[in-house]
Amino acid sequence: MKRKLYVLPAFVLVVILFAMTTDRDGQLTSHAAVTPVTPLTGSALLDDWGNRFAALGTTIGENSLRTQIRITILQLAMFDAVNAVLDGPYRPFASKPASAPGASPEAAAIRAAYIVALHEFPSSQSPTIEMAYNASIESLDASQQAIDDGIVVGEKAANEVLAARERDNRNLEELTGYTPGSGPGVWIPTPSGSPNPQTPFLQFVRPFGYDEPSRFRPSAPPALDSRTYAIDYNEIKDLGRFSGSSRTEDQSATARFWSPSASALWIANIRSLASGKDLLTAARFEAIGIAAVQNALIAAWDAKFTYMFWRPVTAIRAGDTDGNSETKGDPTWTPFLITPSHPEYPAAHTTVGASALGFYTAWFDTDQFPLEFKGLNGMIRNYSSVNEIHAEEGNARVWGGMHWRYSTEVGTAVGSKVGKYTATHLLKPLD
């Protein structure tokens, strides 16, 4: 059944600024100053809808990693819509609908976003989505015919992307009533974390651009009685502890800088690099980059829930039970930063970061380029090479007390493969 659109009159698409002044009789009078809304295009239009999806996910209270799957579908739908209208020289994700000459690519992208939003979020959010859609369409600087033609293409493109993602496991239920395992090496819920592991369904989600979540699964983590494990154990036992550590203030600052969600940080970075690009280029850049981030999360979760390896906070408190003569337990050991509530191996931060950087390396055809990165609370750091960021992101997870060194290195290796594969197989140039 076709949904009714609540078309807003043009006069509501302005910013009303009320200023209170006094007239000749000393009475307060309100005056309205109006500023026309600037139509969004390029990456600004894409990011506007990406931010709307993030806000909708927060409103309904779903896990942000699930919302990011929906955002990836959004980005691919907007790309297919724009690629079709502009007859771009790229393979679509799902389809390339025929487009009338002169159709508005912005209208196509907006309509695609709207269709995906209505499909992905509960009907309770439909009024919010309808109002956002109508406001976006009304602000466009294009003829009605161009807008109407773009809408036709955007709707077709979005529906084909949604059809391609049917039964991809993104809507599997969260795990409740979890019964943890036991024994040396086995993950159990960590202090200050959820009693249930975080988003275990993610390990089953079909990736974007290939079918098997296990495609890039690494080999098992080091044995507990190995020299590698002992070295990593004693490093993080010192540098990653909350107090009494030899960690420097700079190292502590680095751990904090990289502490927010890795996927949120890297998606923001991808969007920042797309700024200023034309609509088609920005749509392709963001779609591939955000898909690379999502594929990295899927690969990390596949390995995490395959190996179910314990976190340092668990391992160090039970160090006398691991069978390694070079490790000594400390039942009071506490990490510098709170440990996330999911299994340890591999480190998701380095997997995600390396995937984004693998995409950048393929896109820019170099691993040496300046990169401005925003971390915790918008703090900014500047880097000059991929390896420089790999090293710092890995160090941050060790210094924060959350990941073994080996896990960060394996995450980097896995993520690099995921990012480069996604960049070279998704939305490829036409032959």
Briefly, what is this?
With 431 residues, this protein is mainly alpha-helical. Helices cover 49% and strands 6% of the residues.
Keywords:
431 residues; two-stranded antiparallel sheet; Vanadium-containing Chloroperoxidase, domain 1; 49% helix; 13 helices; mainly alpha; Vanadium-containing Chloroperoxidase, domain 2; single chain
Structural summary, described in words:
The chain has 431 residues and is mainly alpha-helical. It has two domains: 42-164, Phosphatidic acid phosphatase type 2/haloperoxidase (Vanadium-containing Chloroperoxidase, domain 1); 200-425, Vanadium-containing Chloroperoxidase, domain 2. It is 49% helix and 6% strand. It has helices spanning 42-60, 64-85, 105-120, 126-138, 144-164, 227-239, 249-257, 262-274, 279-307, 312-317, 348-364, 386-399, 405-425, and strands spanning 14-22, 28-36, 371-374, 380-383. A two-stranded antiparallel sheet has the order 1-2. A hairpin with a 5-residue loop joins strand 1 (14-22) and strand 2. Helix 2 runs antiparallel to helix 3 (105-120). The radius of gyration is 24 Å and the shape is elongated. Mean pLDDT is 91; it is low at 1-36.
- Give me the CATH architecture of the largest domain, please: Orthogonal Bundle
Rg of Cα set: 24 Å
Number of strands: 4
Distance between the termini: 39 Å
Output the CATH topology of the largest domain.
Answer: Vanadium-containing Chloroperoxidase, domain 2
Strand order of the largest sheet: 1-2
Assign the structural class, choosing from mainly alpha, mainly beta, alpha/beta, alpha+beta, or little secondary structure.
mainly alpha
The number of helical segments is 13
CATH class of the largest domain: Mainly Alpha
What global shape is seen?
A: elongated
How do the SSEs run, as a string of H and E? EEHHHHHHHHHHHEEHH
The percent of residues in helical segments reads 40-55%
Major sheet size, sense and barrel closure: 2 strands, antiparallel
Could you name the ranges where pLDDT drops below 50 across 5 or more consecutive residues? Answer: 1-36
How many domains make up the coordinates? 2
Quote the average pLDDT. 91
β-sheet strand percentage: 5-15%
